[in-house]
């Protein structure tokens, strides 16, 4: 079996790649956020990293009702207390309520119960930030259902979650002005490392190849290309003109996402990575800025960019979407 082919990078691709090292300062910040009063926002993985910062920024500067969907109850409740302390100190907003729904994206059987719990509490959802993710875990790591961990968590898990939330999300969007209802798919510039067409269909879970260091990054890139394709394909499959579905690379950031990288990579990252709070500005640019268009891909820290050319065709989107629908059918 041959190794996956990664397309040559265009000049625009190289520019996107290097932008992450010297992105400049974020310009779309809290002073430009809408109030979001009466609106409901979901952030997956909002208990750590960029998600933590996005929840904090939303809690301090908007009146949205915020839900964190995450796996570990104890850690999330502790994170919520920490967010509340920081919001009180930085934004002078006391006793800010933030809600928790337990969800494990690496176990598809946990997702429907989580959505049912949410639906028992809410009659609307306005913004969904699919933020949670895994990067370069130990080789051979699997989800509960046997998928390669990054593919199963970053792509399949989020697809099922979004699929189950879609009925309420779409109904809510009909009551909102155009562009207020949004889905943010947190991808990465690692989309440029993905196999041609985004997915190595000969061996989606990389069970037959020897996984070298280079292949490790191709596997991660595949999961992030999946998110880019999901963002572009969601609107085409649903046809809701009020909704903006877009993908982002939050930036090259110092977060817990790097916990599986080597010591050398960690040291290099210390010189090159940016504060995780800046990544929240990228997420919230995609979630709130009036300048964002449906299907757009944005990069750090709120700059319009592009998806790799071979990831943008309808045929590529249809193939992934059909696969994801089939894989999640048993859990709907």
Write the layout of secondary structure elements.
Elements: H1 11-19, E1 40-44, H2 49-61, E2 65-70, H3 73-91, E3 98-102, H4 111-121, E4 127-130, H5 149-173, E5 181-186, H6 213-238, E6 243-248, H7 263-272, H8 276-288, E7 297-299, E8 303-304, H9 314-328
Parallel strand pairs: 1-2, 1-4, 2-3, 4-5, 5-6, 6-7
Antiparallel strand pairs: 7-8
Helix pairs in contact: 2-3, 2-8, 4-5, 5-6, 5-9, 6-9
Pfam families: adh_short (PF00106)
InterPro entries: NAD(P)-bd_dom_sf (IPR036291), SDR_fam (IPR002347)
Family: Belongs to the short-chain dehydrogenases/reductases (SDR) family.
Task: Report on the architecture of this protein.
The protein has one domain: 3-Layer(aba) Sandwich (Rossmann fold). The protein contains nine helices and eight strands. It has an eight-stranded mixed sheet, sandwiched between helices. It has helices at residues 11-19, 49-61, 73-91, 111-121, 149-173, 213-238, 263-272, 276-288, 314-328, and strands at 40-44, 65-70, 98-102, 127-130, 181-186, 243-248, 297-299, 303-304. Belongs to the short-chain dehydrogenases/reductases (SDR) family.
What global shape is seen? globular
Mean pLDDT across every amino acid position: 95
CATH homologous superfamily grouping = NAD(P)-binding Rossmann-like Domain
Task: Give the tally of β-strands.
Answer: 8
CATH topology: the name is: Rossmann fold
Protein name: Oxidoreductase
InterPro entries: NAD(P)-bd_dom_sf (IPR036291), SDR_fam (IPR002347)
Family: Belongs to the short-chain dehydrogenases/reductases (SDR) family.
Pfam family, one: adh_short
């Amino acid at each position: 079996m041959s190794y996956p082919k990664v397309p040559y990078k265009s000049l625009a691709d190289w520019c996107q790649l290097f932008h992450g090292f010297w992105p400049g300062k974020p310009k779309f910040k809290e002073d430009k956020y809408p109030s979001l009063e009466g609106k409901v926002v979901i952030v997956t993985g909002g208990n750590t990293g960029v998600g933590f910062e996005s929840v904090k920024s939303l809690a301090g500067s908007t009146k949205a009702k915020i839900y964190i969907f995450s796996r570990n109850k104890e850690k999330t409740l502790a994170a919520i207390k920490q967010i509340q302390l920081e919001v009180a100190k930085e934004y002078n907003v006391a006793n800010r309520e933030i809600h928790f729904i337990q969800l494990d994206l690496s176990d598809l059987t946990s997702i429907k119960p989580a959505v049912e719990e949410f639906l028992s509490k809410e009659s609307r959802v306005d913004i969904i930030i699919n933020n949670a993710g895994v990067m370069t875990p130990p080789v051979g790591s699997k989800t509960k259902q046997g998928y390669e961990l990054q593919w199963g968590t970053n792509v399949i898990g989020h697809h099922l979650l979004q699929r189950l939330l879609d009925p309420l999300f779409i109904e809510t969007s009909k009551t909102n002005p155009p562009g207020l209802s949004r889905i943010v798919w947190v991808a990465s510039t690692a989309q440029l490392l993905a196999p041609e067409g985004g997915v190595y269909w000969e061996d989606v879970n990389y069970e037959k190849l020897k996984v070298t260091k280079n292949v490790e990054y191709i596997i991660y890139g595949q999961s992030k290309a999946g998110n880019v394709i999901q963002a572009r394909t969601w609107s085409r499959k649903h046809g809701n003109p009020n909704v903006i579905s877009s993908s982002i690379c939050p930036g090259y950031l110092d977060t817990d996402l790097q916990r599986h990288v080597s010591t050398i990579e960690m040291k290099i990252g210390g010189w090159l990575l940016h504060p995780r709070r800046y990544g929240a500005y990228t997420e919230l640019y995609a979630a709130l800025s009036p300048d964002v268009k449906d299907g757009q891909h944005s990069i750090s820290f709120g700059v319009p960019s592009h998806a790799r050319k071979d990831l943008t065709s309808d045929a590529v989107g249809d193939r992934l979407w059909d696969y994801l629908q089939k894989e999640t059918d048993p859990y709907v």
